[in-house]
Every structure is written in structure tokens, then in C-alpha cells.
Amino acid sequence: MPCYRCGARQTDPVRGASPWLRGVSDGGQVLICPDCQGAADLRLDACETCGSTRLICRLGEVECRDCGAERPAARSTTSGVLAPATPPGLSAEVEAALNRVLGRN
């Protein structure tokens, strides 16, 4: 999953904690690269209880990492499963990578 703000791709991390942060935007999980973390226009969802933006989205719920408050995720399909946000051009990148690995021209 790329950085939702600039589109940078996450590379294999070195040992230890990842410098990338997780957040929630419009009810869906997003990643924030180290370069974008200080930006003022991140537009992340905030906890309705404490105002924190340290939220994670899992199993159709958004949970605040600071106070533990939970709420349903906003972005959903008719089946109730979260609809993944697909970055533009991702399918073309995957196809190109498969062609390289499989030796297709």
C-alpha cells in the first residue's frame, strides 16, 4: 500500500519499528510515509471521543490507539466488508512486475 498523500511505495523495512504510520481517512486505513508525516494537510479522521488522529481500521471498525474508543468504519460495500482503496495505476504496476518476473515481453 502506498502513502495515501504522495503515493510513495513502502520498501522492505530494516529491523525495528517501521517509520511509516497508519491512519484513517474517510473511514479507510491509510499509510503515511516518513516524508509526509509532518505535513499540515494530512486530512486524517479524528477520534470522536478524544480528538486523536491515532486511529486504526480493522474488521470493519475504527479504533483509537489513544483512548480505545471504537466505531464502525464508514467506507463499506453492500456486504458490509470494507472496500479497499485501490491507488490509481496499481494494476498496471502489478502487471509490469509479473511480466518482468515471468520473462514476458
Describe the 3D structure.
- The protein is of the alpha+beta class and 105 residues long.
- Helix content is 12%, strand content 20%.
- The chain has one domain (21-102).
- It is built from 1 helix and 5 strands.
- It is elongated and about 55 Å long.
- The two termini are 26 Å apart.
- Residues 76-83 have low confidence and may be disordered.
| Mean pLDDT metric | 81
Mind telling me the C-alpha Rg? 16 Å
Q: Give the tally of β-strands.
A: 5
Task: Please provide the ordered H/E string of secondary-structure elements.
Answer: EEEEEH
Major β-sheet profile: 3 strands, antiparallel
N- and C-termini, Cα separation = 26 Å
Q: Give the percentage of residues in beta strands.
A: 15-25%
| Shape label | elongated
Number of contiguous helices: 1
Report the structural category: alpha+beta
Fraction of residues in H or I helices: 10-25%
Supply the number of structural domains: 1
Low-confidence stretches: 76-83
Give the strand line-up of the largest sheet.
Answer: 3-4-5
